[in-house]
Design brief:
Blueprint (H helix, E strand, L loop, with lengths): L23 H12 L4 H10 L12 H19 L1
This protein binds iron/sulfur cluster.
Length: 81
């Protein structure tokens, strides 16, 4: 997946540190910005595809992305059973 979408991200002129928060409040601040970002879907997909561990991407926290990946793995295993 390419990275052209990044130029349209709502975060492009913000401090990147906002998207690498150290606590839950910081995560919520980032998620509020992502909430009406026009490329949130691509951003989330990129982070999932590239297995990006840190930060808020596409409005999803590290924990939320791990959950999504786990669900995908489980449904993939179930589909093959
Ligand atoms: S979804 Fe959030 S992190 Fe991703 S490009 Fe948009 S504002 Fe930036």
């Amino acid at each position: 997946m390419g990275t052209e979408w990044m130029t349209e991200g709502k975060c492009r002129e913000l401090d990147p540190a906002i998207f690498f928060p150290s606590d839950g409040i910081g995560v919520q601040v980032a998620q509020r910005i992502c909430a009406d970002c026009p490329v949130a879907e691509q951003c989330l997909q990129y982070a999932l595809d590239e297995r990006v561990d840190h930060g808020v991407w596409g409005g999803k926290s590290e924990r939320e992305r791990r959950r999504i990946l786990r669900r995908r793995r489980l449904s993939h295993v179930a589909a093959r059973a």
